[in-house]
Amino acid sequence: MSDQLLAGHRFRVLTLVDNFSRESLSLRARERFCGEDVVNVLEEVSATRGLPKKIRVDNGPEFISKSLDWWAYFNKMKLDFSRPGKPTDNAFIESFNGMFRMECLNQHWFLSPPDAQAEIDSWREDYNGCRPHSALGGRTPNEFAALSAWPRPG
């Protein structure tokens, strides 16, 4: 996703969501992303959550990089690319991104990258911890993830 600061400088947001628990695992704002940046975010999240068997991604340049491809290979993970021009291949993230845009990005004038990240982090905490989802039996993503706990890496 992309947006801009009040001064007009563009920035991008990497959205990482667990489709099972509906948790927003990371929302990272920065000027641009390359494959190594994506790998770093995935490493941070996997340190506490473990690794999934596959990750569904679009065909953005940050996802078709050698860095991400090698990382996935060495971690025995599949990169599941959506078909170009077919956002319905990953309808949940498209819905999540639309809600994130409407409720966060469109609601704020961001003064600086740290200001944008602070607002985004606040929205993410509210989304994960305060909003019940009907698909999760009326639980928040954090509550559902806690009830569905899987073994964590030691």
TrEMBL record:
Signal sequence extent: none
Gene3D superfamilies: Ribonuclease H-like superfamily/Ribonuclease H
Pfam families: rve_3
InterPro entries membership: Integrase_cat-core, RNaseH-like_sf, RNaseH_sf
Span of domain Integrase catalytic: 1-149
Biological process, per Gene Ontology: DNA integration
Molecular function in Gene Ontology: nucleic acid binding
The protein's name: Integrase core domain protein
Origin species: Caulifigura coniformis
Lineage: Bacteria, Pseudomonadati, Planctomycetota, Planctomycetia, Planctomycetales
